[in-house]
Q: What sequence folds into this?
């Protein structure tokens, strides 16, 4: 499967997926990494593994629609089977999301449906949750609301801060995301109108 990864920053999830591919775990290859920000660490990581990179700076576009339309064209030139959002910090237009429906994944640092949006770690602490974590989901037009493929949980300890929690959750992200990409690439999961179908069963 051909995969295009979209990033905005450090790219540690990208790194975990690259490693999953290089280890032969994921039956796919990353055909391009596209960043909406120049000079980010994730671009370097891709280049170090011989992966083509592209920067599409959103500040150079007049509107969200204009940016998304060019982004869509750029992605499509690689004919991807899967688009992976890995720390891509942009809200996407409905037209863009609909175009890649069923073949675009995102990772979110909370146990969805809890804590959609930003500052998830602090919000989980403020709510005195016993557990927190991350979720991989198919992207839908409503933010952080697509069908969930998998969760990874961490226990919240008494002395946890937003920073310590974020580190614990990120560690889980680096196993969960490659595992979910692997499921997609081996055609074990698919998005249906009822939800995610895994081996004939709805998740
Ligand atoms: C991750 O924590 C992810 O949950 C969030 O953005 C962060 C990306 O980190 N959406 P990285 O760029 O993969 O290091």
A:
């Amino acid at each position: 499967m051909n995969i295009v990864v979209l990033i905005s920053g450090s790219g540690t999830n990208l790194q975990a997926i690259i490693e999953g591919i290089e280890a032969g775990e994921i039956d796919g290859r990353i055909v391009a990494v596209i960043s909406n920000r120049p000079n980010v660490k994730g671009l370097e990581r891709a280049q170090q593994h011989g992966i083509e990179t592209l920067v599409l700076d959103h500040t150079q576009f007049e509107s969200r629609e204009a940016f998304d339309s060019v982004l869509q064209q750029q992605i499509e030139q690689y004919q991807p089977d899967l688009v992976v959002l890995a720390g891509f910090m942009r809200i996407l237009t409905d037209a863009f999301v609909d175009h890649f429906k069923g073949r675009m994944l995102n990772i979110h640092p909370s146990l969805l449906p809890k804590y959609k949006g930003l500052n998830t770690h602090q919000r989980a602490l403020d709510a005195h949750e016993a557990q927190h974590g991350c979720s991989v989901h198919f992207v839908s037009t409503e933010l952080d609301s697509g069908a969930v493929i998998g969760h990874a949980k961490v226990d919240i300890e008494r002395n946890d801060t937003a920073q310590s929690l974020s580190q614990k959750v990120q560690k889980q992200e680096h196993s969960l995301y490659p595992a979910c990409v692997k499921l997609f690439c081996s055609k074990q999961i698919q998005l249906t109108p009822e939800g995610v179908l895994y081996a004939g069963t709805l998740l």
